[in-house]
């Protein structure tokens, strides 16, 4: 239970925490210099009331709100509880002060005010503030939370207002690109870019995880190189060999191996709380602190270091002894969320591996070869379940193996945190809350900075928060399938929640902005056509792009409205326009036959050699473009070649939705089609265009 001790200058909040060394966590907040003791007690009571409804992981957000109120409400002359106008003026003044702070970004100020708003509402409930007072609300879908989260590579960047000609950015920074592309082609390329960004992040995380595993293997091989009997004897003699010399002395060629074995034993036996020079010295390791520093540096020198480049050598030694670090856990949660987006960031980071009775939440189906894992969903009084692919199984297996010693230590101490999935070493003690430190932390040892060597391939700002990774998977699924039902199944939410909160919110805004930009550019291009400044006034850097946009305008100007008439009159003379027809919606059925698939694959190769305009042209007889037919070929090939073990859950679901019960039949037809492709290649290679 949260308690508060009030001194002359501070408010000290304290609550139980089994993970803490002393068994409790504290938070200290400065008192308002002008507030009376009674007013300070009101603040404390409101914080306690709010936190009683929350998990301890959410307390910090409430404390931030308290800081905002104390810094903006600087008077002790409070109006009467029923003085609506008096309180309204004070609340507006506080809101203004909070937004005018120069040391915080707008997003941070909005988030902190949202936390302060909860405390103000609680003050209203207990009778301090008039209940009819309007408290400014910043928690809207368009500006806060996961509901407006842009996907990978689309993080917005605010640009300062230009105050001189030198501040004006080049045209390429201020235009919308690819307005000449049809909507379906634009969305296809947009999806491909998202998939590419997600693949870059996923591969970087895999590389980081493999480097960590390699370091664990190096440490294990060094320890295992020591004979078991001799190892047990030396450990029982506190590191002293038969010759009477310490096994970590500089003269011993195996000093590093012995150092790792002794350090690991002392940690697992509970003699030290962390693997550091200070802890080993405190426990009388048997050599000087100078020698320990030398051993730590030697351990650091043998570790792979593409992703980890810390000056402190403690994390290297922890890795060599088989333990996880905070960043290791952050990398694991990111990998698991990408491959299992049904899990939210908070639910996975705080997930339990074991039940109170010792049963495990990991379930293995030996007949189907599947591994299931579930996390708690408290508000729904249920659990979210995911079937792990090969990569997720490997990560989960590594986590269980690397946390076994920490888990045993905590269980012996009867600390309930032994049940947690993620257990790692911090600088002083075992911990279990990897989500408390952001993946985007500016610290050089944060996950985003360690992966920077690989993430440079993404040429736009990258956000590695778990909510962004999950939203990206959701948007990709939506763009692949066009189905909210499939997307909601992948994200583990209802269709209503998916539609209102997750996928379409950012996507609709992004596509809406593009639609408005197209409308504006149509007006600009028609109005300036024939003038020397026509291209400079448009969103097009090259004349070819402008020409394709003119073709698009004429293709869509088919009515008799005034704009269509003017557009055809001004642009129709020299556009080189050819007739296009809008696609007609319908269903397409084809038999899963090797010859049909072979023809489709050859057809796809031929289409790739055609100009873009020709690829997207709608055929008058079929109502399909060449690219639409190629999409069928690509989807057939991807479904047939899908590796169930390596595929993510959404890829498996999409393949099953496409092929249904005929997936095995499709795979067999695909394998036979690959042998017949050369025959159809010879037919298409000499054709002017595929038919």
UniProtKB/TrEMBL annotation:
It comes from the Bacteria. This is Uncharacterized protein. It comes from Pseudomonas putida (strain DOT-T1E).
